[in-house]
Specification:
The protein is an alpha/beta fold. The chain is built from 15 helices and 9 strands. The strands form 2 sheets. Strands 6-5-4-7-8-9 form a 6-stranded mixed sheet. The protein has a 3-stranded antiparallel sheet with strand order 1-3-2. Helix 14 links the parallel strand 8 (320-325) and strand 9. It is flat and about 70 Å long.
């Protein structure tokens, strides 16, 4: 098979557009700056090319992780100093590269490559995490940075100024007094809103082992997105991991969570976990009026009747109970596990939890609860 060497500008522009397809806001100005910077440092300096891409194409810390993943996929190399040099094989001079920032097309082949990469990303979003290879799981971590959880809202008893709503007699009267009795604009008020609490209980037992890492990353996204989120893990015991997951770096957050979880990949005692949550945190106010999310496959070592009793108590306290089951996303799935059968009467929304697309849907369900 003959390997055709592509011009350097096509390779670099293709990389920039693949980065855009991965969710980074790469503009034409950034592309031009990138090409000019690479022309300045030279293609032979891989470390400089890598650093230039991060400096000119990325606009936020979240973009850096995506840059590294796309860089590895596009050039066939990780960050410099770790693995081999990137196979950049230009067939043009550096003078040609300096003139390449005019925004011209990189060619139909490069566009097809970008479309293929975007299509592969979309396929990966819908893949069951349990069936992914190690390389696909590594690519998946960058997608978590694209998740934007919204906090569910609740109305408070406090009133606040508004453009429409009930008439605010006091403010309207003060406005008339300020105008010396002359009629003025009518002021309105409405009940203020604030973020509703969200509590997430993640099953870390052996039967959930294939999903645990991704679920803790989802918990990290939740914790970083709102201060009104509390995350617990449930196995043979209940563990509060919110503080560990509040670290900015997701990898360090997972390491910190792993250090405080004593029952990773152990048995499942959902009833005991829910009871411990209610007795220590739930009845003190954490569960009152909250959206409670349980992520579990429903396997329960204890008696199903006990789980049903604890779910009944939880449902009475919470505003909305969501159960996400990884197996729910399979076409042939049926809720036959005794734990699920016992819990479903006290679950308001039952959703899938097996893929990035399912995680995005779960975030929307919680935000709208």
């Amino acid at each position: 098979m003959t390997v055709v060497a592509r011009p350097a500008e096509e390779i670099l522009l293709g990389f920039a557009r693949a980065l855009r397809a991965a969710g980074v806001a790469v503009t034409a100005d950034r592309e031009r700056t990138y090409l000019q910077a690479v022309a300045t440092v030279g293609l032979d300096d891989q470390a400089a090319v890598y650093a230039v891409g991060r400096a000119t194409l990325c606009g936020s810390p979240a973009d850096l992780e995506r840059h590294d993943l796309v860089y590895a996929a596009w050039f066939g190399a990780e960050r410099p100093g770790v693995v081999r040099k990137a196979p950049l094989r230009p067939s043009t001079t550096m003078a040609d590269l300096q003139d390449a920032g005019s925004g011209e097309s990189a060619g139909e082949d490069d566009l097809e490559d970008v479309r293929a990469m975007a299509s592969a990303t979309e396929v990966l979003r819908h893949r069951d995490i349990a069936s992914m290879s190690a390389r696909e799981r590594a690519a998946l971590t960058a997608m978590f940075a694209a998740l934007r959880p919204r906090s569910p809202r609740r109305r408070t008893h406090r009133l606040t100024a508004a453009r429409r709503g009930r008439v605010d007699a006091r403010r309207t009267l003060r406005e008339m007094i300020r105008r010396h009795g002359e009629p003025g604009p009518i002021r309105h008020q409405r009940r203020a809103e604030r973020a509703r609490k969200v509590v997430v209980l993640i099953d870390v037992s052996g039967s959930m082992n294939a999903y645990t890492d991704a679920l803790l990353r989802l918990g990290h996204v939740w914790c970083r997105g709102s201060a009104a989120v509390e995350v617990f893990t449930v196995g043979t015991r209940l563990t509060h991991v919110t503080r560990a997951l509040q670290q900015p770096d997701p990898d360090r957050a997972l390491v910190a969570a792993g250090q405080v979880i004593p029952d990773w990949s152990g048995g499942t005692r959902l009833a005991d976990g829910v009871r411990a949550f209610l007795e220590r945190w739930g009845r003190r106010g954490m569960a009152r009026g909250a959206v409670v999310v349980i992520v579990s496959d429903g396997w329960e070592r204890g008696e199903p009747e006990v789980l049903a009793q604890q779910m009944r108590r939880l449902h009475a306290l919470a505003h909305h109970v969501v159960w996400a089951n990884p197996h729910r996303g399979h076409p042939a799935y049926a809720p036959v596990q005794q734990g699920i059968i016992a819990a479903l009467p006290y679950v308001d929304t039952f959703v899938a939890g097996h893929s990035m697309a399912a995680f995005a849907e779960l975030l929307e369900v919680v935000a709208d609860a």
